[in-house]
UniProtKB/TrEMBL annotation:
Residues 1-33, 350-380, 402-434, 485-538 are annotated as: Disordered. The lineage of its organism: Eukaryota, Metazoa, Chordata, Craniata, Vertebrata. InterPro entries: Kelch-typ_b-propeller (IPR015915), Kelch_domain_protein (IPR052588). This is Kelch domain containing 4. The gene is KLHDC4. It comes from the Eukaryota. Pfam families: Kelch_KLHDC2_KLHL20_DRC7. Residues 363-375, 406-421, 487-502, 509-526 have a biased composition (Acidic residues). Residues 11-24 have a biased composition (Basic and acidic residues). Residues 1-10, 350-359 have a biased composition (Basic residues). SUPFAM superfamilies: Kelch motif (SSF117281).
Length: 579
């Protein structure tokens, strides 16, 4: 009894500390949020003027991250809502709504009266009742300078059959937060974790709430057992029977000194299950777990497998913070409690299987899946370093994970030498974090996200698709070149104002821009030109000293010779391919 009483006191003490911290954060951030509420109200007033639903065919959505991408429960459509974009000076938040037709490969922008205000890092879940519903909870709004935050605690439902938004006002729900996770478990929405941040304080959560789709009411669960530590941005997947959820990974940070914060990337796993009562238990999965990371994308694939893509692992060295970004794929079998890397087979390997007489049937499916998992674990991915040089000279160094090569016999190797197309590298999404992902009809769809190079952030708008049954290759639906990214440095503010003034000058300004473009073309022509019939290797060898000199000028005298040489090779290649 004594031990039990002590344990209960410890739990109560921890709850009391968390409550105090939450009250402290809430008090300090109240003034900030009141300022932002006025800005949010302006957006809502503008949206309130819209009285009719309008749908317009449009190009793909603009570059963004931390939006939601959901599969329509009844149609071959995807639904993209909200998100954020940062160009180095200003943060943009969105509440636009897009529908992507899978069959037509086309986008439609849907403007519906009285939508949720702009937000990012929210959660959206589709429910197949009433012609289909999209439920949205929480998220955050940021001031244009990105220094103030407002965390939502509102709940919305988009009725897909009637194209109407409805704000569900139900008391007793989670506090305002972003980075939380929400999934459908039978007839209720389960919300776990997340964080709340103000200018000076932050708090991470590990509480869990349930929203009943029958009674439209919130309840806070009090599971027994050892719960995950507070965190945000974890993977949360329903169990195959729908009676519980699995939590993997996530991110949190603590303040170790007054102005020093330390981040933690979690890689543990937990099961929350309801028998008679809810209870937490720790999982120890088999197979090959993903290396620690945060900002990964997640979706639920065929047979209830959890799909994890990309992410970033931040490495702290003294005062520098550098991130290694990933583009690898991992699958988690919820029934077997097993991780394995998703290795692309390639279209050529499928042909070899057919030539060898392997039959694809329901009887062999289990054995083939097992063999696939074992081979994936044994092969493992290969990590390579890729460098891209932007037009302004910024060098992007990104890690890329190339799937392990399949074993090939000598006859196939000879065929590859004869067929150049077969040996060409497969197209893959570049490494990134905070991308949007969902699965529809066994296909994984991946949109946008971001990666960083130094202090510069590249926000993406490319769009990919991968058949999770075939696992052969990524299909590019929307292509984007990261070298064209706009980035405004703080020191460019005066230049930006001058550009705005020039735009107001009308035709005179246009003439000046055309002259500038001609000057740029003249500068490009100063680079050594590619000779007719010259290969990229020949060109790099012939112009090596020129590009080394240029790279040295861009990188400074303290850059290492080896690094300069790598950048010079990359710059020469970029120029060669542009010709």
């Amino acid at each position: 009894m004594g031990k039990k009483g002590k344990k209960e006191k410890k739990v109560k003490g921890a709850d009391k500390t968390a409550a105090k911290m939450e009250k402290k954060v809430s008090k300090r951030s109240k003034r900030e949020e009141e300022d932002l509420e006025a800005l949010i109200a302006e957006f809502q007033n503008l949206d309130a003027k819209k009285t009719q639903v309008t749908e317009t065919s449009c190009p793909p959505p603009s570059a963004r991250l931390n939006a939601s991408l959901s599969a329509h429960p009844e149609k071959d459509e995807l639904i993209l809502f909200g998100g954020e974009f940062f160009n180095g000076k200003k943060t943009y938040l969105y509440n636009d709504l897009f529908f992507y037709s899978i069959r037509k490969n086309s986008w439609v922008k849907s403007e519906i009266p009285n939508p949720p205000p702009p937000r990012c890092s929210h959660q959206a879940v589709v429910v197949p009742q009433g012609g289909g519903q999209l439920w949205v909870f929480g998220g955050e709004f940021a001031s244009p300078n990105g220094e103030q935050f407002y965390h939502y605690k509102d709940l919305w439902v988009l009725h897909l059959a009637t194209h109407t938004w409805e704000n569900i006002k139900a008391p007793g729900g989670p506090s305002g937060r972003s980075g939380h996770r929400m999934v459908l478990s039978k007839r209720q929405l389960l919300v776990f974790g997340g964080f709340h941040e103000s200018t000076r304080d932050f708090i991470y959560y590990n509480d869990i709430y349930a929203f009943s789709l029958d009674t439209f009411s919130w309840s806070r669960l009090a599971p027994s057992g050892s719960a995950p530590s507070p965190r945000s941005a974890c993977q949360m997947t329903s169990t195959p029977d729908g009676a519980g959820v699995i939590i993997y990974g996530g991110y949190s940070k603590v303040r170790v000194k007054k102005d020093v914060e330390k981040g933690t990337i979690h890689s543990d796993m937990f099961l929350l299950k309801q028998d008679e009562k809810w209870s937490w238990s720790r999982l120890s999965p088999s197979g090959s777990k993903p290396p620690p990371r945060s900002g990964f994308s997640l979706a639920v694939g065929p047979a209830g497998r959890a799909v994890l893509f990309g992410g970033v692992c931040d490495e702290e060295e003294e005062e520098l913070l550098e991130g290694d970004f990933y583009n690898d794929l991992y699958l988690y079998d919820t029934a077997k409690n097993r991780w394995f890397p998703g290795v692309l087979r390639g279209t050529k390997s499928e042909k070899k299987k057919r030539r060898r007489g392997k039959k694809a049937g329901s009887e062999d499916e289990g054995a083939e899946t097992k063999e696939e998992e074992e081979e994936a674990v044994a092969r493992g991915p290969t990590e390579v370093i890729k460098e891209i040089v932007t037009e302004d000279g910024t060098v992007m160094t990104i890690k890329e994970v190339i799937p392990g090569a399949q074993e090939e016999d000598e006859e196939d190797e000879e065929e590859e030498e004869e067929d150049d197309s077969a040996s060409a590298p497969m197209v893959e999404p570049c490494p990134r974090s905070s991308a949007m992902a969902t699965v529809r009809q066994g296909k994984l769809y991946l949109y946008g996200g971001m990666f960083e190079v130094g202090d510069r952030q590249f926000t993406l708008s490319d769009f990919y698709c991968l058949d999770l049954h075939k696992m052969d290759r990524w299909e590019v639906l929307v292509e984007m070149d990261p070298k064209t990214q706009e980035w405004l440095e703080e020191s460019e503010s005066e230049e930006e104002e001058e550009e705005v003034e020039e735009e107001t000058k009308g035709a005179e300004g246009e003439e000046e821009e055309s002259e500038d473009s001609e000057d740029d073309q003249e500068e490009e022509e100063e680079h050594p030109m590619v000779q007719e019939g010259e290969t990229v290797t020949d060109y790099q060898i012939r112009t090596e000293q020129y590009w080394i000199k240029l790279a040295r000028a861009n990188m400074g005298p303290n850059a290492k010779d080896k690094k300069v040489a790598k950048v010079a090779v990359a710059m020469a290649k970029v120029f060669y391919e542009d010709q």
